[in-house]
């Protein structure tokens, strides 16, 4: 396909995302089924442009004076992809392109960004969230949010059950992976340009052999805060697809036991093939349909990890459509669930054991507020230094350790953000039960 046809396709896909509230993945898949002539490069190009338009939806709409799918896609070409008017004009002259640029579009496409636009416009976040953004980031709300309105890099965690970082490095070179600056057993791949064709990570044998897992560095650091030791008894209470379970299994080197529980049995099933691939043999799935399996663990665990369901604000770089779908009532619902889950999960911690609370949200309402609420009714728990817990795992580099110490709150919890850490937004806190 030529660029004109791709631009038209991106406008159609974005229309579906915005008017039918479809995630980008499914809207792009539907378009792909209709457009049999489109190849994989065309699909990556179209989805990439739609995602970039969504990442910067407010600032592009403001610059273009137009929040229609056409205005957003044309604006994304200029303001996210750096195309000049000539390139856009050329594309719009091609067959299957949308109609030619209007005079007003032409003027808007070359205008400089508005330096006095409000924070939700400069930072591309929903306006209703302005008070929460100001609460967590103060004057820096717009710049913190701007770092969430760009493409995310890819991080890989080395599965030390199978291989060490040195051995994994060589085959990962073809994927342009470099050693992580933050973690000793991790690699980092810069964000891909959707207009360039690149080999998929899944096609690298090191990946299919289970040597590495795709896992954001923030998620790896949160899992490190469990400081899971070989021989310990660990409950991953919201195990889901098992990202943290697998990271902790790697930390424990096959010794001790991890119980992986989730209220959603289907999500747990997705963990079975991942466990096989990873070679982790000390993970036992605790299915919600067998509640006695869970109750047997009461008061027995050295560590209970709660990777709580949350609004996912920390992952806006990867899922910009979710940023605009989020509503205040969902945040309130999540906060209620987080309180219930923390209280329920705490029963399994043994005296002297620890409860780790993590979210991939940067909102104080889902983070410090939930920890404070839990501690107010659980006098037998007290908060510890989560940064030192993560560092004690031995998984952080010197730079990684310095970084998380810098972003540790006086209470001991840590909040990472794309701007601070180059990771997804993550929060983690360690709560110790009296012995
Ligand atoms: C953030 S996700 C977990 C991601 C996972 N730990 C990982 O690293 O891949 C949160 C999980 O909590 C689960 N969940 C929601 N409510 C729960 C509850 N009341 N008890 C246990 N798990 C729950 C959801 O099904 C979801 O899988």
Automatic annotation (TrEMBL):
InterPro entries: MeTrfase_RsmB-F_NOP2_cat (IPR049560), MeTrfase_RsmB-F_NOP2_dom (IPR001678), RCMT (IPR023267), RsmB-like_ferredoxin (IPR054728), SAM-dependent_MTases_sf (IPR029063)
One Gene Ontology term from the biological process aspect of the record: RNA methylation
The entry's keywords: Methyltransferase, RNA-binding, S-adenosyl-L-methionine, Transferase
Positions of the SAM-dependent MTase RsmB/NOP-type domain: 144-434
Keyword Transferase recorded: yes
PROSITE patterns reported in the protein's UniProt record: SAM_MT_RSMB_NOP (PS51686)
Protein name according to UniProt: SAM-dependent MTase RsmB/NOP-type domain-containing protein
Organism: Hyphomonas atlantica
């Amino acid at each position: 396909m030529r660029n004109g046809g791709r631009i038209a396709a991106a406008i159609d896909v974005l229309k579906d995302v915005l008017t039918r509230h479809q995630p980008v993945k499914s809207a792009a898949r539907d378009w792909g089924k209709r457009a049999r002539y489109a190849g994989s490069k065309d699909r990556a190009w179209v989805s990439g442009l739609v995602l970039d338009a969504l990442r910067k939806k407010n600032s592009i709409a403001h610059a273009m004076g137009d929040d229609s799918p056409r205005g957003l896609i044309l604006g994304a070409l200029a303001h996210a992809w750096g195309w000049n008017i000539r390139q856009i004009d050329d594309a719009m002259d091609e067959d299957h392109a949308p109609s030619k640029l209007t005079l007003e579009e032409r003027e808007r496409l070359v205008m400089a960004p508005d330096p006095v636009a409000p924070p939700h416009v400069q930072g591309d976040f929903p306006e209703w969230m302005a008070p929460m953004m100001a609460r967590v980031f103060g004057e820096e709300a717009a710049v913190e949010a701007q770092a969430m309105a760009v493409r995310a890099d890819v991080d890989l965690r080395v599965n030390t059950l199978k291989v060490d970082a040195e051995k994994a490095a060589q085959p990962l070179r073809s994927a342009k992976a470099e050693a992580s600056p933050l973690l000793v057993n991790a690699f980092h791949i810069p964000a891909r340009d959707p207009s360039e064709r690149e080999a998929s990570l899944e096609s690298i044998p090191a990946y299919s052999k289970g040597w590495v897992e795709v896992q954001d560095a923030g998620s790896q650091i949160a899992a490190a805060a469990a400081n899971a030791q070989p021989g310990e008894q660990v409950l991953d209470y919201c195990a889901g697809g098992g990202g943290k379970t697998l990271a902790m299994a790697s930390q424990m080197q096959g010794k001790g036991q991890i119980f992986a529980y989730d209220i959603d049995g289907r999500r747990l099933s997705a963990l079975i093939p991942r466990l096989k691939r990873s070679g982790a043999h000390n993970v036992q799935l605790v299915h919600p349909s067998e509640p006695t399996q869970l109750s047997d663990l009461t008061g027995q665990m050295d560590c209970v990890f709660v990777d709580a369901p949350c609004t996912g604000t920390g992952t806006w770089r990867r899922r910009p459509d979710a940023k605009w779908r989020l509503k205040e009532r969902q945040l309130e619902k999540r906060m209620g669930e987080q309180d219930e889950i923390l209280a329920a999960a705490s029963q399994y911690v043994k005296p002297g054991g620890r409860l780790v609370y993590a979210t991939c949200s940067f909102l104080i309402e889902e983070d410090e507020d939930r920890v404070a609420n839990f501690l107010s009714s659980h006098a037998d728990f007290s908060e510890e230094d989560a940064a030192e817990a993560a560092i004690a795992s031995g998984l952080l580099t010197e730079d990684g350790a310095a970084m998380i110490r810098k972003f540790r709150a006086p209470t001991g919890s840590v909040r990472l953000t794309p701007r601070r850490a180059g990771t997804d937004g993550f929060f983690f806190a360690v709560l110790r039960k009296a012995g």
